[in-house]
UniProtKB/TrEMBL annotation:
Residues 28-244 form the Metallo-beta-lactamase domain. Transmembrane segments: none annotated. SMART domains: Lactamase_B (SM00849). InterPro entries: Metallo-B-lactamas, RibonucZ/Hydroxyglut_hydro, Sec-metab_biosynth-thioest, WH-like_DNA-bd_sf. This is Glyoxylase-like metal-dependent hydrolase (Beta-lactamase superfamily II).
Length: 342
């Protein structure tokens, strides 16, 4: 696991508190604490683990606050490394928790399913993607735990202000990484909490499973949100505070780089698909990833296939590829090949 940096005073009542994610290469998530009348407000809460909770509590003490003084937490999105401690925070402080309604709905649906039901869904996805049986069996034989954060108390929609007197913290809806991902704009200080939407070095995961077209176009939404946030008034002045890596400036340039990265990926996939119809697994395993395919764990391969599926969905939307074959094992090909012999 990466070394966890110290708590940092960012000035004017703002602190970054790195909360570890034990046993995960992500290392830690930055939770931000903002002083406000009535007690501090958190941006995200961190992973649900005793070590993570201890880091959050001790980090708040270093800011001059105690956990029971927290009045609320605004969540950038529902992922467990961001929202995992919301229930424990609420028990310790009676804090309210706000989230975009789209992500709150995802959490509600996840909470209705058992781990066994979620595992069965992943297995079904892998089979439809064309994963070899040995990969399916590897997943089936490995106990899967799907942490589900507590439901929020409050909905926070695009452009809405967090209910904190004396603090003009407003939501900017940036779907893609999750359906309800939020960035948070503190305009009077030229600050933007970017969550996982814009990171200074890597691009966040944007995936799509199951494969049905009714599930929308997450990558298309993500690219549109990148362009939108890069054109925010005063975007070139903003200090961006992401949930991972490091603080950065130059938001318009960074959003442009992220869009260009995905456009290059889309072009690469489109070229591969001119060779003929392919399953999701065949396409995913032939692409370049940060880690060689043969060294990736099974859940990393599943995430890679989900990301590939999101790119295929956008290529479908653009009319460049077409789905063929049976619903149980769909294939994709370029439009010209899809109309010709396979």
């Amino acid at each position: 696991m990466r070394d966890v940096p110290p708590v940092e005073d960012l000035g004017e009542g703002l602190w970054s508190i790195p909360v570890p994610v034990p046993g995960n290469p992500i290392g830690f998530t930055y939770v931000y604490a903002i002083s406000a009348p009535g007690g501090p407000v958190l941006v995200d809460t961190g992973w649900h683990h005793d070590d993570s909770w201890e880091a959050l509590v001790s980090g708040l003490k270093q800011t001059g606050h105690s956990i029971d003084q927290v009045q609320g937490a605004v969540l950038t999105h529902f992922h467990a490394d961001h929202a995992g401690l919301t229930g424990r925070l609420r028990e310790a402080s009676d804090a309210w928790v706000a989230m975009h309604p789209s992500d709150a709905e995802v959490l509600r649906r996840l909470g209705e399913r058992t781990d066994d039901e979620r595992s069965a869904s992943v297995i079904e996805q892998m089979v439809r993607a064309g994963f070899p049986e040995e990969d399916v069996e590897t997943f089936r034989s490995s106990p899967a735990v799907f942490p589900s954060p507590a439901l929020p108390d409050l909905a926070l929609g695009d452009g809405e202000r967090a209910d904190v007197p004396g603090l003009d913290l407003r939501a900017v809806w940036t779907p893609g990484h999750t359906p309800g991902h939020l960035c948070l704009h503190l305009a009077e200080r030229d600050l933007l909490f970017t969550g996982d939407h814009v990171l200074p070095r890597i691009t966040p995961h944007v995936g799509q499973f199951p494969l049905d077209s009714a599930d929308g176009d997450p990558l298309g939404d993500f690219l549109a949100a990148q362009a939108r946030i890069g054109r925010m008034p005063g975007a070139d002045r903003l200090l961006c505070l992401p949930s991972h890596e490091r603080r950065f400036t130059g938001l318009p340039a960074r959003t442009g780089e992220i869009v260009d990265h995905h456009e290059e990926r889309l072009e690469s996939m489109a070229r591969l698909l001119t060779r003929g119809a392919t399953t999701l697994w065949e396409l995913t395993s032939s692409l370049e990833w940060r880690r060689p395919w043969t060294e990736m764990r099974i859940m990393a391969r599943h995430m890679a296939a989900s990301e590939t599926a999101a790119h295929l969905r956008l290529l479908e939307e653009r009319g460049l590829v077409r789905r063929t074959g049976p619903a149980e094992l769909p294939r994709w090909a370029s439009v010209t090949r899809a109309h010709g012999p396979e």
